[in-house]
Structure formats: structure tokens, C-alpha cells
């Protein structure tokens, strides 16, 4: 029983850690995309002003 609990605890920890890493990666990617969006909007304004 104790061995089964230990293995389950390890599996649960691994699952939580992987989920946390995925969430952090998604947050970083979202921030990069937000920054890119701001730059592209500024570029659109600049090009529109040239017309």
C-alpha cells in the first residue's frame, strides 16, 4: 500500500510540475504575442499616415 501511495504521489507531483511549466510557457508566449501586436499596430499607423 505504501509503495503504491509513494508512486502515486510522485506521479501527481510530476503532473503538477508539467502543468505549471506549460502554463508558464503559454504566459510567456502570450506576452510576446501582445508585444508583437503592439508593434504591428504602430507599424500600421505609420504606414497609414504615409498615405
TrEMBL record:
Can you give the residue ranges of the BZIP domain? Answer: 1-51
The answer to keyword Coiled coil applying to this record is yes
Q: Which InterPro entries match?
A: bZIP, bZIP_sf, PAR_bZIP
Q: What is this protein called?
A: BZIP domain-containing protein
What species does this protein belong to?
A: Helobdella robusta
An annotated Gene Ontology molecular function: DNA binding
One Gene Ontology cellular component term attached to this UniProt record is:
nucleus
Q: Name one Pfam family in it.
A: bZIP_2
Record PROSITE patterns: BZIP
Q: What Gene3D superfamilies does the annotation carry?
A: 1.20.5.170
Give the coiled coil ranges.
Answer: 4-50
